[in-house]
Amino acid sequence: MTHPYAQFRERAARLDTAVPRRPWTPSDGPLPALYLSHGAPPLLEDAAWMDDLHAWARRLPTPRAILIVSAHWESAPLALSTTDGRADLVYDFGGFDPLYYRLRYDTPDAGDLAALVRSVLPASEALHEHTARGLDHGAWVPLLAMYPDGSVPVLQLSMPTHEPGRLLELGRRLRTLREHGVLVVGSGFMTHGLPFLPWGDLSRVPGWSAEFDAWAADALARGDVDELAGYRDRAPGMPYAHPTVEHFTPLFLTLGAATVPGTVTTALDGFWWGLARRSIEVA
């Protein structure tokens, strides 16, 4: 039987051939900043989720480059993945189908993007550039669905802290990249309480997951960044929704990169294995 991702690739190729994507131009203005719930390798078995991500990307002008911060690379001082778009991926997971350890996501060289990132950071900010580290699954899993042909240069930036204020400031420094056609992405998961899932019935959404998601959706709709920044004390469902916080905090980089005041649009919602897959774009 053909794997669902292979079937998706065929659908996506037909659509992108029949109705070609439109490349970003300066007349489009700044691209939005995104926060996406990236799932795990089995996202590439979920036809509806792959189609949703692909349709979301097609609604946007195709970026000149993508800068993505993932929950799965926590490193300070700041670091960039290799600019070599053909580097091996990071297979930072275990227990999945061997197929997922053979996948590749080859993209064009991202040297120009690395130079642009350096240009918007203060000279005092140490920025290590790896020569071999490829993208981790928080980056390549969703991008395989959003931009499956790998035609856009991609760099991954490490997440140096979980402190909302510092991530908002980092996002503000990256904001001007959007004016150059760079898609700035924070990749996490709106809820990520894996130890507390009802593993015997993953069709059931736990109360802590639904409550946290509804709280976040309301705060985002109101543009209440202070409420979101106080999630540890204010959000219902904590700490079950995020026993560790690295899947929520990329949201603050996205919000920092947004124009102020930003307009939040929910691109995807619903639940997967009981986890909230809410994903947003902020203009």
UniProtKB/TrEMBL annotation:
EC number per UniProt: 1.13.-.-
Entry annotated with the keyword Nuclease: no
Domain of life: Bacteria
Protein's UniProt keywords contain Metal-binding: yes
GO function terms (MF aspect): dioxygenase activity
Top EC category: oxidoreductase
UniProt xrefs under PANTHER family: 4,5-DOPA DIOXYGENASE EXTRADIOL-LIKE PROTEIN (PTHR30096)
Protein name (record): Class III extradiol ring-cleavage dioxygenase
Organism annotation: Actinotalea lenta
